[in-house]
Amino acid sequence: MFAPLATSKAALGLKDDIALLSARRGHEIVVTTDAIIAGVDFFANDPPDTIAQKALRVNLSDLAAKGAQPLGYLLTLALPKSVGSAWLRAFASGLKRDQQKFGVTLLGGDISSTPGPLCVSITAFGEMPTGRAVLRNGAKPGDLVFVTGTIGDSAGGLAALKAKRREPQLIKRYRVPEPRVAFGRRLRGIARAAIDVSDGLLADLGHIADVSTVHIEIDAARVPLSAALRRAWGSSQATTVRAATAGDDYEIAFTAPRRHSETIFKAAKAARTRVTEIGVVTKGSGVVLMGQAGKPIRVKRAGWQHR
């Protein structure tokens, strides 16, 4: 089922214990890994193809935020006994579609059984010019803060599934995120710091603030919310707080010098990606969500806690 997905010579036809990767001259390999688990990151009864797509795309999102071009991935599956061949065929079909869309290939992996929930782990590889990765540590006071797409849709989809409400646009955002690969490549040499929004907009910008030793202020009124989310949750300040702390959006949040604003919006148009300016970087530490009259909004939890 999976051998047809290993289209690169680097995979050795899945007939060995390794894959052989090499970077072009003047380039380096970028590596990231993420696992998703039934009952935590997706529902066990979700369509198998969407589970495969989410597992791959959350990794591609990490590569996109660094400005890397995806190359391939390793796949590790821990399968409960309830998973059969029909499920695996549907899962493989989801990977095939995304391989064609994003230009990646399966390089290898492992399959095991588990008495616990289904677990899908992917390690993704990308390539980019040496020294051009957009890391978390480059934000400077005076930078503007931007984010792609809209925030909170995935959480809206999760809430809809739990409540058994029909919210197809939001549910799709939860099940199948959209990594901003094309736009991410255009951030090289423009953005100073970037991160994909997985833990929550405020939490992830907090990671940039911590590593860059700066303070980040986000204007709550500018946080982009979709029409579908507003219909589901309303348009109050509480909705913005909920969206900005929910996570699982897999958009790119980044900082850049003010002089690059026009270039950023031109790049966004070329990549057919929505980008919104939402804040500013200053001296200090931490991240804050600013409300009306420039007053900080109290937030109990900035996002997902890894513990």
Structure notes:
There is one protein chain. With 307 residues, this protein is of the alpha+beta class. It folds into two domains: 26-129, 2-Layer Sandwich (60s Ribosomal Protein L30, Chain: A); 144-294, Alpha-Beta Complex (Phosphoribosyl-aminoimidazole Synthetase, Chain A, domain 2), CATH 3.90.650.10. The chain is 32% helix and 24% strand. The strands form two sheets. Strands 6-8-5-9-7-10 form a six-stranded mixed beta sheet, sandwiched between helices. The protein is globular.
Name the features.
307 residues, alpha+beta, 60s Ribosomal Protein L30, Chain: A, Phosphoribosyl-aminoimidazole Synthetase, Chain A, domain 2, 6-stranded mixed beta sheet, 9 helices
Please give the structural blueprint:
Elements: E1 27-37, H1 48-66, E2 69-79, H2 85-102, E3 105-113, E4 119-129, E5 144-148, H3 153-163, H4 168-175, H5 181-185, E6 193-196, H6 201-212, E7 215-219, H7 227-233, H8 237-244, E8 252-256, H9 261-270, E9 275-282, E10 286-290
Parallel strand pairs: 2-3, 7-10
Antiparallel strand pairs: 1-4, 2-4, 5-8, 5-9, 6-8, 7-9
Helix pairs in contact: 1-2, 3-4
End-to-end separation: 35 Å
Just give the CATH class of the largest domain.
Alpha Beta
Which architecture of the largest domain per CATH? Alpha-Beta Complex
Task: State the secondary-structure class.
Answer: alpha+beta
Concise description?
The chain is an alpha+beta fold and 307 residues long. It has 9 helices and 10 strands.
